[in-house]
Amino acid sequence: MTARRQFLATAAAATAAAFAMPDASAFFSLGRTPTTAPEFAGIDNWLNSAPLRMADLQGKVVLIDFWTYTCINCLNHLPAVKSWHEKYKSQGLVTVGVHTPEFAYEKSTRNVKAAMERLGIQHAVAQDNSYATWRAFSNNYWPAIYLVDKKGMIVYSHFGEGRYAETEKAIQALLAQ
Fold first, then answer.
1. What confidence score (pLDDT) does residue 6 get?
2. What is the spatial distance between Cα 101 and Cα 69, in angstroms, rounded to a whole number?
3. Which residues of the chain have pLDDT under 50?
4. CA dist 164 to 7, 11, 74, 101, 158, Å?
C-alpha cells in the first residue's frame, strides 16, 4: 500500500469513527467551539423553580431555551421543548426557558405566568427583562436552544425552528456521557 493510499484509508476510517461516536462532539453546531456556560444574569423572576445557578447544575445536562410568548417560531418549537423536558428530566436533563421580552407588555410577570399556564409550561422559566442573560450568552435570536454538558460547557446550539431530531440526539448523547 502506498503512503498516499494508507493516508487516505486512515483519514476515511477516522472520519467514519468520528461520525459513529455517540458523544456530543458529533452534534456541535456548525463550527461552534465548546465554551463555558455563563451564569444566569439579571433574572427578574424565576417561575416554576427556585433560582438556578449554572454552578449548581454541574453534573446535569441543561437545555436553555431563549423564547418569548408572542414569538410564533417560539410557539411552534415549544412542543418539542416540553416533550424533551418530560421525557428526559428523570435522566438528569434540566430545562430552563429564558423568557426575554421583545415588547414592553411581555415584561409583565402576570402576562408571562398566564402564557405559561395557557401553554402548559412545567419547566423552569427565568424572566430576563433586562436581557442580561441574553447578552451573557451572546444570543441574537428567538427561539434559541443551547445545550450545556455535565461539565458546564455549551456544546450545542440551534437557532429557529427545526432540527428537532438532531437536537434530541444531542440531548441523548449528552445524557449518556
1. 56
2. 8
3. 7-27, 30
4. 36, 30, 13, 24, 10
For 7-74, give the DSSP string.
HHHHHHHHHHHHHH--SGGGG--TTPPPEEPPPP-S--EEESSS---GGGGTTSEEEEEEE-TT-HHH
Residues 76, 50, 47, 83, Cα dihedral to 10° = 20
Cα separation, 73 vs 26, in Å, equals: 26
Determine the Cα–Cα distance for residues 46 and 96; give it in Å rounded to an integer.
10
Q: Which domains does the chain have, with CATH numbers?
A: 24-176 (3.40.30.10)
35 beta partners: 154
Give the C-alpha separation, 48 to 113, whole Å: 9
81-124 pLDDT tens trace = 999 999 999 999 999 999 999 999 999 999 999 999 999 999 99
177 three-state secondary structure = coil
